[in-house]
Amino acid sequence: MTITFTDAAGSIPETEGTVVVLVAGNSTLSGAAKDANESMGGALQRALDAKSFKAKHGDTMSFPFPGGMKAEKLILAGLGKDTQKPTDARILGGRIGAALGKLDKPGATVFADDLDAALVAELASGIKLRRYAFNRYKTGKGADTLGKGGVTVATAEKEAAATGFIDADALAEGTFFTRDLVSEPANILYPATFAERLEALSEHGVEVTVMGERELEEIGMGSLLCVGLGSQHESKVVVMKWNGAEDANAKPFCAVGKGVTFDTGGISIKPAGGMEEMTMDMGGAGVVSGLMKTVAMRKAKANVIGIVGLVENMPDGKATRPGDIVTSLSGKTIEVINTDAEGRLVLADLLTYAQREFKPAATVNLATLTGAIIVALGNYNAGLFSNSDDLSNQLADAADTEGEGIWRLPLSKDYDDLIKSSLADMKNVGGRAAGSITAAQFLQRFVDDSPWAHIDIAGVTLMKEAKPLHPKGASGWGVATLNRLVRDNFEPKGTT
Ligand code: BES
Ligand code: MN
Ligand code: ZN
After folding, report:
1. What would the mean pLDDT of 368-392 be, rounded to a whole number?
2. What does pTM read for this prediction?
């Protein structure tokens, strides 16, 4: 969906389609809202007087076929007490995006009076993020069920808002890339087709390298490769590089993602109920891919490397068995007790590879790793584990700034002891207790002392309900947080 900015919206009574006007938290009508009230013979003031509409932040109220206006619908949107932080404006935009409903031509005009250009850009990004739709497999619906009409944002600071929107739009496009990947079914999106979609990022200046099984065997990724042995699809590792840093030799920030395009559990097979949701088990790789698209589209002055391990976990005569022992790229041996704990086997080799190959300033891996994280945190916070208080705080700040939930959980030797194996250097599960933490301890065995964080996104990747900034389904959680982390910590200050 395209959003255009205009400073010449024309008069309120003459505007066709859907008209959105903003109302301050003190419920005083001004600007476009005042004009609309006059055209409508005072109807808006009556709604306020009757306290039907309280103008709280993100409140909306819809008036079909408003009297005295050419519009088909008028929407009031409340600014609340303070719409000052960027996320306030973004969430308000999201609520407006939802209230717009299905839009036909000539679309909607949002009169963004009294907001500065930066907030207008955020408002526009919220509208865009909320109006995402994935309709590829609904015949006849076209790309966007939300209709053919576009959204115009009317603002006195048209140029500055449009400029501010460039970066916000890069974030939205990266987030949509993630949502598309997460939404795709596993017969369409398997390692090879996933890799093809990533190769297309070269059009934005990302350098993309795809490695297949023969090369991964040569390198020695025995842990990652054992996961895909039961699949008809060849496993792939894709490395994506964006280097916009002023110092081309700056140590990179590395983002690493679990890309299990389908997870049946393998020989330790999952129960049938809900198994179809395991098409989202590539969510970590999806976020890394969306991040790469965003940093490239906004030409971030940072050195960012994305690495994803793409595999399918299936049962088969050739599949890895419970009890098998594999040798990871690090040389450490792993007893595979449960073939359903496959994500950590994929990430182990990727983490070793990232640190050996790129000597990163910091590494963050993302994965839909454990059901246990949903038991602990539900669907509102991702789980954060880290060997560095600094990186952990930077991530928590970034998530806070972007309005994404994250919560840190502990790591310690006691938990690490739970993955001791009698036959190999470690086993891949630690029993029922503290399942998300023992998974994180497993990953930590493959990282050196450089700053590292693991984010378990199993609970936040696929949402049963819409939120202000996304519809039901794939959320794209994490693209905004990681983009913010890069911007605030790995780019020169003062870049917008
Ligand atoms: N992909 C799953 C984790 C998951 C569960 C993601 C629910 C999204 C929603 C992972 O591969 C898995 O199966 N984990 C097991 C680990 C167990 C065998 C130790 C789990 O959580 O049950
Ligand atoms: Mn699994
Ligand atoms: Zn999995």
Report:
1. 98
2. 0.98
